[in-house]
């Protein structure tokens, strides 16, 4: 039982030390203008505006993004990719 108490105390001491070092450190980021503009550009590509938003009966909110503005198409290998969709429901109706 003594080893459990020591291990818990050691764990708490390590957590306290890590927390105090993080609080004592300088939390500001020194970014150059180039790095700042690159970060802003990357954030603009990630933050796509949604077209429609709806909530289901469980309270979960879904944001619908335009199919041609999906974040997956921002990948360099998919830059000139054309979207190919087969409408199964439409084909079944015809």
UniProtKB/TrEMBL annotation:
Report keywords, A-Z. Answer: Signal
Q: Which InterPro entries match?
A: Neprosin_propep (IPR025521)
Pfam families, per this entry? Neprosin_AP
Q: Which domain of life is it from?
A: Eukaryota
- Where in the sequence is the signal peptide annotated? 1-24
Q: Which residues form the Neprosin activation peptide domain?
A: 54-85
What is the name of the protein in this document? Neprosin activation peptide domain-containing protein
Output the lineage of the source organism. Answer: Eukaryota, Viridiplantae, Streptophyta, Embryophyta, Tracheophyta
């Amino acid at each position: 039982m003594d080893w459990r108490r020591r291990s818990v105390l050691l764990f708490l001491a390590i957590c306290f030390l890590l927390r105090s070092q993080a609080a004592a450190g300088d939390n500001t980021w020194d970014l150059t203008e180039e790095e700042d503009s690159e970060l802003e550009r990357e954030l603009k590509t990630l933050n796509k505006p949604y077209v429609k938003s709806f909530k289901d009966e469980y309270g979960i909110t879904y944001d619908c993004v335009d199919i041609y503005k999906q974040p997956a198409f921002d990948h360099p290998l998919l830059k000139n990719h054309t979207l190919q969709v087969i409408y199964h429901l439409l084909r079944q109706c015809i």
